[in-house]
Each structure stands twice: as structure tokens, then as C-alpha cells.
């Protein structure tokens, strides 16, 4: 990953399916419990009004690929904040699982201390609203959404599916 500003491309990637129709429309509303600085806190999309928001999904806690991406976002949060941007990660795990993953040292497959919220989507509703939930597998795809919250409509401006 380059600089935080590199996340905001000049063109959109080729969207597909439900997500195609979502780009340039208001982002689906969400709220839920997140782990922030080791504590549970209620969080909602409207908390980010007036800022850019990188909102991304990852399949599950304690998987081998996801920590590198989440850690990279967390380690560079000050760069994002310098361009009026916040970052929120979301999975279908509970806030309790998120906390256990954060409390597990990085050398043992955990995240260690995190500077970005991990949002719990135990009902899978947020993932379904964003079109990234895999019913047959019980978890989400890896997706990154860029919400432009300064826009009064809070429109989705970009998404990227990662493999």
C-alpha cells in the first residue's frame, strides 16, 4: 500500500452486480457495536459526517490474510486522519471475538493493539446491505468502500473487491 491518498483512485474499478448500482448512491446506513481502543462502543455511519470514510469488510477474525491488511490500515491511521479520513473495519464476528483478536499478540496471529474500530455484524445485515455477504459460506467477501460523508447524501464513491 502506498500513501493513504493512494486509496482514492481517480477512476472507479469496474463494479459488478448489486454493488454496481450502489456506486454514486447513498451508502447503506449502519450501526452496531465496535471495539475501539480495547473497549466496546456503539458506532454508526452518521458519526463520520463531515469526513471521508474508508469502510471495509473482511471475512473473519483469526484468518491468515486479513490481519496484514487490517494492521496496515491501523498503522497508517494518522496519514488517513491528515486527509480528513477515518477507517472502519467490519466482519460478521462478534465484538467479543474482535476483542480477543486484538488482545492476541501479532506474533501469535492476533492484531495486537488497534487504532481503528472493528465493527461487529453478527446479524450479517450490514454485509447484506452492502452486497458482500456470502450466504453459502456464512461470511463476507473482502471489499473496500469509500464513503464521501461530506456529501449531504453520503454517497458511495468507490469500491474495490480484493482476492
Automatic annotation (TrEMBL):
<feature type="region of interest" description="Disordered">
    <location>
        <begin position="1"/>
        <end position="20"/>
    </location>
</feature>
<dbReference type="InterPro" id="IPR050217">
    <property type="entry name" value="Peroxiredoxin"/>
</dbReference>
<dbReference type="GO" id="GO:0033554">
    <property type="term" value="P:cellular response to stress"/>
</dbReference>
<dbReference type="GO" id="GO:0006979">
    <property type="term" value="P:response to oxidative stress"/>
</dbReference>
<dbReference type="InterPro" id="IPR036249">
    <property type="entry name" value="Thioredoxin-like_sf"/>
</dbReference>
<dbReference type="GO" id="GO:0042744">
    <property type="term" value="P:hydrogen peroxide catabolic process"/>
</dbReference>
<dbReference type="Pfam" id="PF00578">
    <property type="entry name" value="AhpC-TSA"/>
</dbReference>
<dbReference type="InterPro" id="IPR013766">
    <property type="entry name" value="Thioredoxin_domain"/>
</dbReference>
<protein>
    <recommendedName>
        <fullName>thioredoxin-dependent peroxiredoxin</fullName>
        <ecNumber>1.11.1.24</ecNumber>
    </recommendedName>
</protein>
<keyword id="KW-0560">Oxidoreductase</keyword>
<dbReference type="GO" id="GO:0005783">
    <property type="term" value="C:endoplasmic reticulum"/>
</dbReference>
<feature type="compositionally biased region" description="Polar residues">
    <location>
        <begin position="10"/>
        <end position="20"/>
    </location>
</feature>
<keyword id="KW-0676">Redox-active center</keyword>
<dbReference type="GO" id="GO:0045454">
    <property type="term" value="P:cell redox homeostasis"/>
</dbReference>
<keyword id="KW-0575">Peroxidase</keyword>
<dbReference type="GO" id="GO:0008379">
    <property type="term" value="F:thioredoxin peroxidase activity"/>
</dbReference>
<dbReference type="InterPro" id="IPR000866">
    <property type="entry name" value="AhpC/TSA"/>
</dbReference>
<comment type="similarity">
    <text>Belongs to the peroxiredoxin family. AhpC/Prx1 subfamily.</text>
</comment>
<dbReference type="GO" id="GO:0005829">
    <property type="term" value="C:cytosol"/>
</dbReference>
<keyword id="KW-0049">Antioxidant</keyword>
<feature type="domain" description="Thioredoxin">
    <location>
        <begin position="21"/>
        <end position="163"/>
    </location>
</feature>
Amino acid at each position: 500500500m502506498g500513501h493513504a491518498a493512494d486509496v482514492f483512485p481517480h477512476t472507479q474499478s469496474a463494479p459488478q452486480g448489486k454493488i454496481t448500482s450502489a456506486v454514486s448512491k447513498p451508502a447503506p446506513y449502519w450501526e452496531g457495536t465496535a471495539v475501539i481502543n480495547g473497549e466496546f462502543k456503539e458506532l454508526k455511519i452518521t458519526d463520520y459526517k463531515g469526513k471521508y470514510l474508508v469502510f471495509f469488510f473482511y471475512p473473519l477474525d483469526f484468518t491468515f490474510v486479513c490481519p496484514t491488511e487490517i494492521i496496515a490500515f491501523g498503522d497508517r491511521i494518522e496519514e488517513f486522519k491528515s486527509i480528513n479520513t477515518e477507517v472502519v473495519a467490519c466482519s460478521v464476528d462478534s465484538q467479543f471475538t474482535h476483542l480477543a483478536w486484538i488482545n492476541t499478540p501479532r506474533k501469535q496471529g492476533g492484531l495486537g493493539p488497534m487504532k481503528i474500530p472493528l465493527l461487529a455484524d453478527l446479524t450479517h445485515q450490514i454485509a447484506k446491505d452492502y452486497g458482500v455477504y456470502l450466504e453459502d459460506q456464512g461470511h463476507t467477501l473482502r471489499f473496500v468502500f469509500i464513503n464521501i460523508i461530506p456529501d449531504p447524501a453520503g454517497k458511495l464513491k468507490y469500491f474495490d473487491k480484493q482476492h
